[in-house]
TrEMBL record:
<dbReference type="GO" id="GO:0030170">
    <property type="term" value="F:pyridoxal phosphate binding"/>
</dbReference>
<comment type="similarity">
    <text>Belongs to the group II decarboxylase family.</text>
</comment>
<keyword id="KW-0210">Decarboxylase</keyword>
<feature type="modified residue" description="N6-(pyridoxal phosphate)lysine">
    <location>
        <position position="295"/>
    </location>
</feature>
<dbReference type="GO" id="GO:0019752">
    <property type="term" value="P:carboxylic acid metabolic process"/>
</dbReference>
<dbReference type="Pfam" id="PF00282">
    <property type="entry name" value="Pyridoxal_deC"/>
</dbReference>
<dbReference type="InterPro" id="IPR015424">
    <property type="entry name" value="PyrdxlP-dep_Trfase"/>
</dbReference>
<dbReference type="InterPro" id="IPR015422">
    <property type="entry name" value="PyrdxlP-dep_Trfase_small"/>
</dbReference>
<keyword id="KW-0663">Pyridoxal phosphate</keyword>
<protein>
    <submittedName>
        <fullName>Glutamate or tyrosine decarboxylase</fullName>
    </submittedName>
</protein>
<dbReference type="InterPro" id="IPR010977">
    <property type="entry name" value="Aromatic_deC"/>
</dbReference>
<dbReference type="InterPro" id="IPR002129">
    <property type="entry name" value="PyrdxlP-dep_de-COase"/>
</dbReference>
<dbReference type="GO" id="GO:0004058">
    <property type="term" value="F:aromatic-L-amino-acid decarboxylase activity"/>
</dbReference>
<keyword id="KW-0456">Lyase</keyword>
<dbReference type="InterPro" id="IPR015421">
    <property type="entry name" value="PyrdxlP-dep_Trfase_major"/>
</dbReference>
């Protein structure tokens, strides 16, 4: 059968129609989904049909059945988790990525999209002030990005101890000690579990969740000299937005022969905004970094970014050579820089987002998110009974009422109200309502409506 462009017309036309309708409405619809997963599942129940449906009809049926169960994550009043919206250029590029349907694993076979990703990688390094020449891998998200950096770390620190983990595995080798702050994100622990490194050693943090350098120094000094060690630091605490003290912690780690990794899922982008760059001072001296493009940069899911300063370290962890995988001249194949041989060209929307913003626009985007967080914090702090319990240094705001019961009640009323989505959490021994400002479209009106929604919820929280 010959594939012709017109074969796709009906499905693409209907997809564009439904996408435009969603984007037109997402800013004004209630933020929570209208029905739950079971209700969506019921609409999809039934036996596998004997006869197929034309492509346009399939798209229409899919949109009709799924749309009631969609959360308005793209709304300027969605603050439930650190999930960005989607910049227009990034969305357009993502559609092209699906239409092109390229396997972005090898330079030789798909040079077009690989070259775009390489350009995006250079721009990411430039924007974040990370070492030129670092390897950049485009992965599914920050968890996989940390997995990538920590895999390179594992191989390197064991090699220094005389053990080749890539040939010999972990069994019988020296144990790897991983030091983490008490308030690191659980995705770091998950990556360590994937790597067979087990639970990390926890280092004390301060009242804002920042790793304490004195506690790190004591932990590094505890144990036999030459112990293979990794120190995992954090750029952007999910509750306070705080940043570990990189300028002190990273040199200290290196003094003890440790690899320094930074989980910067949303916080690493502070480096791109001149008025926020002080938060990440010294971060460029680490050995690996993990971040998400689908958070602060606002590209579509899924797109994490793994950066490793030493290309040899990450390629030793993920490189593979077979007769059918063609090596091409240049800066290595994408499959050598991340844990996938085959994948979609997820770095292309990253290039499009950065190209549409430019340096000034990127600084404005990141700085604007932090400014909106301050505005929300200032607005809710004026509501009787509400206290902002963190130092608002970046994009995170944590609120609490007089006691846990009132805080939980206010959170329930907020979700029932539907005007905004602010998730409940627990931090520093108490229940909180956490605001994560991540969407490029959040504006003055969204801030005002969010503050008023909190006022209504607090008024009825008892």
């Amino acid at each position: 059968m010959t594939v012709r462009g017109k074969d796709f017309d009906g499905a693409l036309d209907r997809a564009a129609h439904h996408a435009r309708a969603w984007l037109e409405d997402v800013g004004e619809r209630p933020v929570p989904p209208r029905i739950d997963a079971d209700a969506v599942g019921d609409s999809l129940a039934g036996p596998f049909p004997d006869r197929g449906l034309d492509p346009a009809g399939v798209v229409d049926e899919l949109a009709a059945r799924v749309e009631p169960g969609l959360m308005a994550i793209g709304s300027g009043r969605f603050f439930g988790w650190v999930m960005g919206g989607t910049l227009p250029a990034a969305l357009g590029a993502d559609w092209l990525v699906s239409a092109w349907d390229q396997n972005a694993g090898m330079r030789f076979s798909t040079p077009g999209v690989v070259a775009v990703e390489e350009a995006a990688g250079r721009w990411v390094l430039d924007a974040l002030g990370l070492p030129a020449g670092s390897d950049v891998g485009f992965v599914t998200g920050a968890t996989t990005a940390s997995f990538t950096g920590l895999a390179a770390a594992r191989g390197t620190v064991l090699a220094r101890a005389g053990w080749d983990v890539h040939d010999r595995g972990l069994t019988g080798g020296p144990p790897v000690r991983v030091l983490v702050g008490a308030e690191r994100h659980d995705s770091v622990d998950l990556a360590l579990r994937y790597l067979g490194l087990g639970a990390p050693t926890v280092v004390a943090a301060d009242e804002q969740g920042r790793l304490r350098v004195d506690a790190l120094a004591a932990a590094l000094a505890d144990g036999p000299p030459g112990t293979p060690t990794i120190v995992a630091l954090q750029a952007g605490n999910v509750h306070s937005g705080s940043f570990d003290p990189f300028a002190a912690a990273i040199p200290l780690a290196h003094e003890h022969g440790a690899w320094a990794h930074v989980d910067g899922a949303f916080g690493l982008w502070a480096a791109a905004a001149p008025d926020l760059a002080h938060l990440v001072r010294g971060v460029e001296d680490a050995d690996s970094w993990a971040t998400d493009a689908h958070k602060t940069l606002n590209v579509p899911y899924d797109c994490g970014v793994a950066v490793v300063a030493d290309p040899a370290a990450v390629r030793a962890a993920f490189g593979v050579h077979t007769a059918y995988l063609v090596d091409a001249p240049g800066p290595g194949n994408p499959y050598e820089k991340a844990p996938e041989l085959s994948r979609r060209a997820r770095g292309v929307p990253t290039w499009a987002a950065l190209r549409s913003l430019g340096r000034g626009g990127l600084a404005g985007l990141v700085g604007g998110l932090a400014r909106r967080a301050r505005e929300i914090a200032e607005g809710v702090a004026g509501i009787d009974g509400v206290r902002v319990v963190n130092d608002v240094v970046y994009t995170q705001v944590c609120l609490a009422l007089g006691d846990d019961a009132r805080t939980r009640a206010a959170g329930e009323r907020l979700l029932a109200d539907g005007e905004t989505w602010i998730s409940g959490s627990r931090w520093q021994g108490r229940d909180v309502l956490r605001v994560s400002v991540s969407n490029w479209s959040t504006d003055d009106d969204d801030v005002a409506r969010t503050v008023e929604a909190v006022r209504r919820a607090v008024g009825g929280a008892g």
